[in-house]
């Protein structure tokens, strides 16, 4: 059995770049991805900024090598999953027992919502092709089939922590000797369904979001996909892995369907559990990639839980959602890739637009890009609706 | 290897499965293409005010979860793992319809909040006050199986003693309409007890929730252990399925001869039932066989109903007449192999063994 599980590579597509290097460049150059909606069609086009992937479906379909009428969620997923695989140095996929574990929140909803307009007018109408991939699992299978993955395919949907939970499950599939390699992460495209849903909750900011800032008023939605390649010890020995996935925990806040508890119970339990599994003390964490959505509720709960666990030794921290927006089911995957490369290259990401310290918290996020820091251990937080809280810890060798 | 016990089960289905009593003693016989759950009185578990706001899938999930915990005598599981292919379709449909009809204006949050796939798992945790591990698998015909695999791994890792795991899906007006257009269902109504002999294409639509409390120590009423679980995605041909079953049995230290009863996911669609014939002919030609989808209908997490039935059969050491498909029920039932597939693409195997 594999004792450890390693990150052999990763891929990202998001509102700040079509691949990981482009995304890193955007952080370095302080170029957040929010702007007016260009590809999503919505009556709220001029009200809410979003972080869209800067390419239309035809372009993405070309990149992915899939038909352009396929759900954007699947196009994004395949592009990032392929980048992750190529970066791992594993070469021919058919040589390994491979699993694909992908998180998403609304599957092929981008097509379903187009279908529904015609269907509601007459339930014999609407092109069935548009609902064929409505199911979350169907989006995963488009990608698994395109990449030739059959040993294990699964889809996780725990709202905004889906991508993080995919990494945990992938780790355990390797440890339990079910597969040797897992591509794990998440994907979500922007849809009117989620945009309007978050709007009813009144947690969308009409300005670019300000995570962990006293003046924050909500989040910006984003879209994208992010995957890491997890490998067993024996495969890692032949590769140049980035780092290890050394710890993780999943806990439930059990407080409210959409809101976090004021003291961040679930957040605390997830971070504490992940540290315990890694065998680390809080002061050994060098950087935290925050969940940091920019809503009043999330940032205070997350911050209070961090204060309780880390005070007085606060690591550097920042919310990369200040660049990518909140990519929902993809966020855990995207931020896992950013955290893994952070361990490898010593990167601390800037938290854009931070100006005012939150009155409840004794710490402030990092505001400038830096690399080459000595980061042995990096934590990534993902919290979601349904009380689902997850934390991951990435460690150097 | 660590033994994993089924210490409690709860099932809400188109049959009278939530009321307790002898297994499937009173058959609900239907002559329709769409089955709906027989609902228990949800007030026994959920506050009346909350019931009104909950969709059917959440209610059936909370109900089956509670039944299973009660049967196991467990107040608080260490983890909750849910499998649902479609998630909360009803609330999704409500929000989507209003969004389209009202051109994205004047929408209210309730349906959106309850539309996320982890609503059921989240609600169970909320009602139990359970801060433990909570995960939701949403992978088509593997949703329940992946939840089960996650549970088995976690118990083997030693990080939990008791885990609540379940599979569920609801059928709604919209999903039935749309899935019908894909040609999944029979054109004419079929009687429950005639479905599996039906000579035509298509099956009947179903829904339901089945939850299990699995533990590393047996409880007072434990009748079965979960010996193995495996999935096979998009096999190229029948031979691959047969090979996979042989390998699965071998991995679990048994042969077809050790299987006392085969439980299959036949659904009355002549095309889809073909593979069961092939498997039976190749590996289990003389084995007694029971089936269950004529009772609960076809849905992606129907294997949960099958596992509930198999556990009940091991407990009673008898097969209900209405479930028997071929041969005579054996007098002593030690091992049951559940073989199910969903739409020919998602095949799964669940092996249960009797606990004396």
From TrEMBL, chain A:
Query: Which InterPro entries does its entry note?
Result: Beta-ketoacyl_synthase, Ketoacyl_synth_C, Ketoacyl_synth_N, PKS_Beta-ketoAc_synthase_dom, Thiolase-like
In what residue span(s) does the Ketosynthase family 3 (KS3) domain sit? 1-396
Does the keyword Zinc-finger feature in the UniProt annotation? no
Q: What's a BP term from Gene Ontology annotated to this protein?
A: fatty acid biosynthetic process
Q: Which SMART domains match?
A: PKS_KS (SM00825)
GO terms of molecular function: 3-oxoacyl-[acyl-carrier-protein] synthase activity
The UniProt keywords, alphabetically, are: Transferase
Question: Pfam families per the record?
Answer: ketoacyl-synt, Ketoacyl-synt_C
A single GO cellular-component term on record:
cytosol
Similarity annotation = Belongs to the thiolase-like superfamily. Beta-ketoacyl-ACP synthases family.
PANTHER family assigned: BETA-KETOACYL SYNTHASE (PTHR11712:SF320), POLYKETIDE SYNTHASE-RELATED (PTHR11712)
Protein name per Swiss-Prot or TrEMBL: Beta-ketoacyl-[acyl-carrier-protein] synthase family protein
Origin species: Chitinophaga fulva
Automatic annotation (TrEMBL), chain B:
**Gene Ontology molecular-function annotations:** 3-oxoacyl-[acyl-carrier-protein] synthase activity
The signal sequence is none
Stretches assigned to the Beta-ketoacyl synthase-like N-terminal domain: 44-178
Identify the InterPro entries for this entry.
Beta-ketoacyl_synthase, Ketoacyl_synth_N, Thiolase-like
- Gene Ontology biological process: fatty acid biosynthetic process
Transferase among keywords: yes
Which keywords, in A-to-Z order, does the entry hold?
Transferase
The superkingdom of the source organism is Bacteria
Q: Which PANTHER family match?
A: 3-OXOACYL-[ACYL-CARRIER-PROTEIN] SYNTHASE, MITOCHONDRIAL, POLYKETIDE SYNTHASE-RELATED
What is the protein's name according to its record?
Answer: Beta-ketoacyl synthase
- From which organism does this entry originate? Chitinophaga fulva
């Amino acid at each position: 059995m594999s004792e450890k599980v390693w990150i052999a590579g990763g891929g990202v597509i998001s509102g700040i770049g079509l691949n990981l290097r482009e995304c890193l460049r955007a952080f370095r150059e302080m170029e957040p991805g929010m702007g007016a909606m260009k590809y999503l069609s919505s009556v709220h086009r001029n009200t809410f900024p979003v972080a869209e992937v800067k390419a239309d479906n035809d372009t993405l379909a070309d990149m992915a090598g899939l038909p352009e009428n396929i759900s954007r969620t699947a196009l994004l997923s395949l592009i990032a999953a392929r980048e992750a695989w190529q970066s791992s140095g594993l070469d021919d996929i058919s040589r390994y027992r491979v699993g694909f574990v992908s998180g998403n929140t609304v599957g092929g909803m981008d097509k379903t919502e187009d279908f529904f307009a015609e269907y509601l007018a007459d339930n014999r109408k609407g092109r069935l092709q548009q609902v064929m991939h409505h199911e979350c699992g169907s989006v995963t299978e488009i990608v698994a089939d395109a990449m030739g993955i059959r040993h294990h395919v699964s889809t996780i949907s725990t709202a905004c922590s889906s991508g993080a939970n995919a990494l945990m499950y992938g780790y355990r599939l390797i440890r339990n000797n079910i597969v040797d390699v897992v591509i794990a992460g998440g994907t979500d495209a922007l849809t009117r369904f989620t945009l309007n849903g978050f709007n009813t909750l009144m947690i969308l900011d009409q300005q670019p979001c300000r995570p962990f800032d006293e003046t924050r008023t909500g989040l910006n939605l984003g879209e994208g996909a992010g995957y890491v390649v997890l490998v067993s010890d024996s495969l890692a020995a032949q590769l140049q892995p980035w780092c290890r996935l050394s710890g993780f925990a999943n806990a439930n806040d059990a407080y409210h369907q959409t809101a976090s508890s004021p003291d961040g119970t679930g957040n605390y339990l997830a971070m504490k559990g992940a540290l315990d599994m890694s065998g680390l003390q809080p002061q050994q964490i060098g950087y935290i990639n925050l969940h940091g959505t920019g809503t009043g509720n999330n940032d205070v709960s997350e911050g209070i839980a961090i204060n309780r666990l880390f005070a007085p030794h606060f690591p550097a921290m920042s919310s990369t959602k200040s660049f990518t927006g909140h990519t929902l089911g993809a966020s855990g995957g995207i931020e896992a890739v950013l955290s893994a490369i952070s361990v490898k290259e010593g990167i601390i990401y800037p938290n854009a637009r931070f100006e005012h310290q939150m009155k409840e918290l004794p710490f402030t996020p990092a505001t400038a890009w830096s690399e080459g820091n000595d980061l042995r251990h990096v934590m990534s937080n993902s919290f979601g609706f349904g009380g689902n809280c997850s934390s991951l810890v990435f460690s150097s060798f | 290897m660590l033994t994993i016990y089924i210490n409690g089960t709860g099932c809400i289905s188109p049959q009278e499965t939530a009321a307790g009593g002898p297994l499937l003693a009173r058959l609900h016989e239907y002559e329709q293409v769409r089955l709906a759950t027989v609902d228990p009185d949800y007030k026994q578990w959920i506050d009346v005010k909350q019931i009104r706001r909950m969709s059917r899938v959440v209610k059936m999930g909370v109900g089956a979860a509670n039944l299973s915990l009660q049967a196991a005598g467990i107040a608080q599981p260490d983890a909750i793992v849910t499998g649902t292919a479609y998630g909360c379709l009803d609330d999704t449909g409500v929000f989507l319809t209003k969004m389209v009809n009202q051109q994205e204006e004047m929408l209210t949050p309730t349906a959106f909040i309850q539309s996320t796939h982890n609503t059921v798992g989240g609600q169970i945790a909320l009602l139990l006050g359970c801060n433990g591990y909570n995960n939701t698998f949403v992978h088509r015909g593997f949703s329940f199986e992946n939840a089960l695999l996650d549970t088995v791994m976690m118990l083997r890792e030693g990080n939990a003693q008791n885990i609540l795991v379940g599979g569920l899906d609801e059928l709604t007006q919209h999903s039935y309409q749309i899935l019908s257009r894909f040609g999944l269902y029979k054109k004419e109504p079929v009687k429950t007890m005639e479905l599996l002999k039906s000579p035509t294409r298509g099956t009947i639509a179903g829904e339901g929730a089945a939850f299990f409390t699995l533990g590393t120590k047996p409880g007072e009423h434990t009748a079965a252990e979960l010996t193995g679980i495996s999935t096979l995605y998009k096999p190229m041909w029948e031979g691959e399925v047969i090979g996979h079953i042989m390998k699965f049995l071998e991995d679990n230290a048994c042969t077809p001869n050790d299987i006392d009863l085969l439980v299959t996911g036949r659904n009355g669609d002549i095309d889809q039932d073909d593979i069961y014939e092939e498997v039976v002919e190749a590996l289990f030609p003389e084995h007694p066989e029971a089936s269950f989808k004529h009772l609960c209908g076809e849905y992606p997490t129907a294997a949960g109903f099958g596992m509930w039935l198999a556990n009940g059969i091991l407990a009673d050491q008898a097969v209900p007449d209405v479930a028997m498909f071929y041969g005579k029920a054996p007098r002593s039932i030690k091992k049951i192999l559940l073989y199910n597939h969903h739409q020919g693409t998602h095949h799964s195997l669940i092996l249960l063994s009797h606990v004396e």
